[in-house]
Amino acid sequence: MKIYNSFKITASMGELHELLNEFQELVNDAAVEITHERYSDLLAAHEYSTIARKLSIEHSSPLQNYLKGGFSILTGLYYKIWDAEQKNKKTGLSLPQFDFTCDVVIYPYQNQFLLKFFSSQRRYLDILRTNSRFQEYDYWDDTSKPPHISQEEWEHRSIVWNEVNQNITWAQSGYTRELYTGLKPLMPNKLKEIVNQRYSVNQRVEMFSKNILEHRLAEDTNWQDKKPFELIQYIKSPNAQIALDQIKVEIKKHLVEKYTIEMLSDN
C-alpha cells in the first residue's frame, strides 16, 4: 500500500468546505501564473523555431498550425494550451506540463476527514501545506517509515488507511472535490511581464545557440556515429565555444529584444 500526498484534518463538514473554498481560490490564482509560464515557454519555442529557420535549420513551431489558420500569436498560444487540456480530458493521457487540474478525494473517518490530493502541479500541493490545519498523513509499506514519525503512529496510519480502503459504502468510501475551474483568458500584460522575466536576451541567446549547434552537429555526417557523451564533451570544448560565439552573432541579428503586446498580436 502506498498513500502519498495525503492529509488529515479535524473539522466539521462546514469548516472543511470553507477551507477547501479558500484553497480553491488559491489554486486557481496559481493556475493563472502557471499557465502564463507555459505560454512563455511556448513563445520562446516559437521564437527559436523562427530563428532556426532563418539559419537554414528545419524546425517547426508549436504554434505553426494556429498561425497558418490566421490566428495571432496571442490567440495561438491560448488555443495551444486549450487544445492540450481538451486532449487530456478526452484521452485521459495527461501531458503534465498542460495539466492544471486539482482534485481532492475526501474520506470521512470517525471525527476527522482524510484527504488524498491529486495534481500534476506541485505548486498546488505546496499551497495546501502552508495551512497548518491540514496535517500530512502519508503511508507506505514497501520501505522504511520516515524517521520523524514514531512506530506507533506509523502502525496506526496503516490501520486507518486499510479501513478506509476497504470501505465500500458511498458515505465512507470518499468523494471527489474538483478545485481547478478551467483555463482562464490569456492576459497579454501578464504574459509580457513573465516572458521577459523568464527569458531574458542573454538566456535566450545561450539556449538558442546551444540548440542550433546541436542541430548542426546532428546533420553533420562526421558526427552522426558519435555517442551522446562525445557530443556533450565537445560542446564543453574550446572549439565548440568558438562555434557557439559565431552562432550567437547570427542569432542576435534576429532576436527579439523585448516582447511587446503589439508584436504578440501579430501572426
Question: What report would you give on this structure?
Answer:
This protein is an alpha+beta fold and 267 residues long. It has one domain. Helices cover 57% and strands 10% of the residues. Helix 1 crosses helix 3 (73-91), helix 1 runs antiparallel to helix 4 and helix 8 (201-219) crosses helix 10 (238-252). The protein starts with a strand and ends with a helix. The relative contact order is 0.18. The model has no long low-confidence stretch (mean pLDDT 90).
Features:
single chain; 11 helices; five-stranded antiparallel beta sheet; alpha+beta; 267 residues; two-stranded antiparallel sheet; 10% strand
**Strand arrangement across the biggest beta sheet:** 5-2-4-3-7
**Alpha-carbon Rg, integer:** 24 Å
Q: Decide which structural class fits the backbone.
A: alpha+beta
Describe the biggest sheet? 5 strands, antiparallel
| Average pLDDT level | 90
Q: How many helical elements?
A: 11
Percentage of residues in helical conformation: 55-70%
Spans of at least 5 consecutive residues with low confidence: none
| Integer tally of domains | 1
Task: Report the principal-axis shape.
Answer: elongated
Distance between the termini: 52 Å
| Beta strands, count | 7
The SSE order reads EEHHHEEHEEHHEHHHHH
Share in β-strands: 5-15%
List the helices and strands and how they pair.
Layout lengths: L1 E2 L2 E4 L3 H42 L9 H5 L4 H19 L11 E7 L2 E7 L3 H8 L5 E2 L2 E2 L10 H16 L3 H4 L1 E4 L9 H11 L2 H19 L8 H8 L2 H15 L8 H4 L3
Antiparallel strand pairs: 1-6, 2-4, 2-5, 3-4, 3-7
Task: Briefly characterize the structure.
By secondary structure, the chain is an alpha+beta fold. It is built from 11 helices and 7 strands.
